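The records we work with from here on pair a chain with its fold. Taken together, the C-alpha cells spell out the fold as the letters spell out the chain. To see the layout at work, look at the sequence and C-alpha cells printed below.
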Amino acid sequence: MKNAEISKRRDAAISVGVGMQTQIYVERASGSEVWDVEGRRYIDFAAGIAVVNTGHCHPKVMAAVRTQTEAFTHTCHQVLPYENYIRLAERLNEKVPGDFAKKTVFVTTGAEAVENAIKIARAATRRPAIIAFGGAFHGRTFMGMSLTGKVAPYKKNFGAMMPDVYHVPFPIELHGTSTEDTLSGIQKLFKADLDPDRVAAIIVEPVQGEGGFYPAPAELMRALRALCDEYGILMIADEIQTGFARTGNLFAMEGYDVVPDLTTMAKGLAGGLPLAAVTGRAEIMDAAQPGGLGGTYGGNPLGIAAANAVLDVIEEEDLCNRANALGSRLKQRLNEIRSRVPEIVDVRGPGFMIAAEFNTADGSAPNPEMANAIRAEALERGLVLLTCGVYGNVIRFLAPLTIPDEVFAEAMDILEASIDAVKGA
C-alpha cells in the first residue's frame, strides 16, 4: 500500500471536517518512532497530541491491557463495577494537587471531562455562568466549543454557542496583554455584563494548548484563586494536555502555589487508550445526584488498566525529571538557533511542553507560513511536528518522555536542518 492511495480512499470516505496535519498512514509504532505503510520511519514529536507521554506501546502498559483483555473488556461500571476503577480513582485522589478529601469520576474524552466539570460546578454552586479565556481550547462538544476561545475552525458555521459563557483575554506579554489587563477585563465584565454571584466557575489551562503553549503566569493563578474565594466561584484547572509528567510535574498545577477545586484530565492518562477524568473536592464532586454523571464507556476496563500502568511507569522511570531534562536541552538548542534566526521570537514552556513562536523577520506580524514550512520540511526529513496558536505561528514539541537520548539528538539535528532549509529558501 501507498500513502497516496490510502489518502484518496480517505477523501472519499471521511468527512473533510476531520482535519489532517499529515498524509502519513501509520503501520506500527514503538517508543518515540513510527513507521508508515511504505516502511518509512519517523521520529514522533507529536505523541498523539500529548497522549503517549510514556511512548508508543510501552511494554508495561501493553502488558496491563493484554491481561485485562483476557479477563473482560466491558461491563459498564454503573452495572457491574470492577476494583481497578476504584484503585485508579484512589490514586488520582491522592496525586491531584490539593490537601483535602477528593473524589473522581471517569469518562471517555477530554471534552467529556470538561462537560462534566461544568455540570458538577453548576450543581454544586446552583449558578449558571462560566468564565473562560481567549485562546483557550476545551473541546469540540457544544459546551467545549463555547468555552474555547478561538472561532476558526472550532466554532465556525456551527450556530449559536451555549449561553452564560464569557471570555476574557489571556495574559500573553509577547502580544501586549498583561495579567493586569486580564484581571481588569474580569472586573469590567462584572461591572457591565455579569453579576459575579451568578458565576459557577472559572476554567483555565495552566499552559494554553491549542492556543499557543502560553504558560499562565503565577500571579494570574493567585489572583484567580483569590477572586474565586471572594465570590464563591469554583476554579477548574484543565490539565488535559498538561497532565501526566508533560510539564515536569505530574500535574502542571503543582508548579503554582494555589490549587483548583476541580481538575480535568485525559490525553496522557491512559497511554493511548480513551480515558478521561474529573477529580475534585469531595463535597463538590458529590453535588450531582446518582445517575447525573457517568456514561456507558466511562472508565472502560482497558483504559483503567492502562492508566494504572501509566502511573507506575511515570514513577518508576522518573518521567517528571526526564521531562525537565529533555525540555532544558530542547530550549538550549532552540535558543542557539534563535541567535541567528530572528523569526524565532520566543522559546517557552515548562518541562517538555515547549514551543517556538515565529514572526516576520522585522517582528511586526505572526509568521504562520514559516512555521508551517518548517513543519512540512521536517516531515520530509522524518520528524513529525505540530503547529498551534491563534495565528498558527507556533511549533509545539510533544515527543514521548521516554524518547532515547540518541533519537532525541537525531531529532534536534533534523529540526535545525529544517529551519535552516526554510530560512535559506
Remarks:
- DSSP finds 13 helices and 15 strands in the chain.
- The first helix runs from residue 3 to 13.
- The CA atoms of residues 325 and 351 lie 8 Å apart.
